[in-house]
Amino acid sequence: MSQTKPHEIVERALELSTADGCVVIADEESSANLRWAGNALTTNGVTRGRTLTVIATVDGKEGTASGVVSRSAVTAADLEPLVRAAEAAARGAGPAEDAQPLVTGTPASPDFTDAPAETSSAVFADFAPALGEAFARARAGGRELYGFANHELVTTYVGTSTGLRLRHDQPNGTLELNAKSPDRSRSAWAGRATRDFKDVDPTVLDAELAVRLGWAERKVELPAGRYETLLPPTAVADLLIYQMWSAAARDAVEGRTVFSKPGGGTRIGEELSRLPLTLRSDPHAPGLESAPFVIAHSSGDDASVFDNGLPVPATEWISGGELARLTTTRHSAALTGLPLSPSFGNLILDGGGDKSLEEMVAGTERGLLLTCLWYIREVDPATLLLTGLTRDGVYLVENGQVTGEVNNFRFNESPVDLLSRASEAGRTEKTLPREWGDWFTRAAMPALRIPDFNMSSVSKGV
Length: 462
Description:
Distance between the termini: 48 Å
Largest sheet: 6 strands, antiparallel
Structural class: alpha+beta
C-alpha cells in the first residue's frame, strides 16, 4: 500500500463505497527534526506516515447520517474493511444535525494525481551550519542553548462521490531556542515559524537571547497588580487564537460565549477596540499560506464533514475595531442567519502601527515587557476570561530602558477585554505562538500595549 499513489487510494476507496455519499481524505505526512541541549546536537530524525479518513453518508427517512473512520498505516487488505466500517458507523448513527448535500463544483486541483510533496533533512542544509555557529558563540559567551527545529510537509488529497478532486501541500516549520545561564538561574526563549527554514537564522536568535540574559542579571521583585504591559507578538497570537477558537456563531447565538449579545443575538457590528484593528484570515497570505478549501476530518462547532471541499475565502473577523464575522459552517450559517464563514488556517492582526517592539519599549516610562505566555486555560466562557502564566522572562522597563528582570506572574485576562483596552499596536510580523504552537503556527501579529494588564498573583516558576 505504501507504494500505491495517494490519489489511487482515494479513487479505490470511492469505488468501494456503497453509501449514498462518500468523502475520502488521504493525508501524506513527512517530517524532519533536530534537537539540541547544552550547545550540542542530541538527536535528529525523519519520519513518514499516511492517514486515511473515510466519511460515509447514508440517507434515511429521518435525514442523512454520517460515519467517520480514520486509520493510519492502511494496507491494501485494510481498505475495504475501512470503507465498510465507515458505512456501518453511518447506518448505526442517527441523523446528523449538520447534514448538507456534499459540495460540488469546486474546480479540480491540477496536481491531484502528482506524488505527495516530502520534506527531508535537506531542509536544514543552511540552518544546521548556522546552528553550529550559534553553539560556538553561546559557548564563548557563557550561555547554554537548548531547543529543537521541526519541519513537516502534509499533502492532503480530498475526493468525493460528487466529483471533487482536491489537493493541498502544507509545509510547516517551527524553531524554538532557549538560552540558559550555566547555573540555570536565568532563562530566555525565542521562537520562529517558517515554511522552509530559509528565513530563520539561529545566530540572530542567540544574539537576542544573550541580551535578555543580560537583562536578567538584575532581579527585581514586584507584587501582583495591574501594570502597563507590552505583549510581544507571540503572546498576542496565543490570546487571539484562543479567542477565535471560541468564536463559533451558533454558540454566540445561543448565548454561551463572549460574543453573545445580552437579550439575544450576537455582538457582530459592535466596537471591540478603539484602535483600528483588523483581525483576518487569508489562505493566500504570503508566507502564511493555508488550505483554500475546507478539510474537515470530523464535525464540531466550527467544522462539518459535509463541507469538505468548500472554498475558504479571505475573511475579516474584526474590521476597523468592529466585530465583523463569526465562524460558521453551512449548517450553522443557515441556523443563525449569518454569512457563511468557514474556519481558518491562519490569523493576522493589523493594527496600523509601524513601531518595532524595541521602539515601543523606548516609548515606555514604566512598565513590563513580557516574553511569552503558557499554560493558558479558560476560566469563564461568558467573558472569555483566561488564566495562565508568564514564562522565560518578564522585564522591567523604566524611562525607555530595560532595567532588570522581575518575577513571573499568573495573569487573569480576557483577550476581548484586552483589545478594548489596548492603547497602541506595533508593527505586524510573523510570529510563533508559544502555547498553541503544536496546533497552530501560521500567525502574524503586532505587539500590543496594555495600560493595565492584570497580574493576579506572583508565580515562582521560570
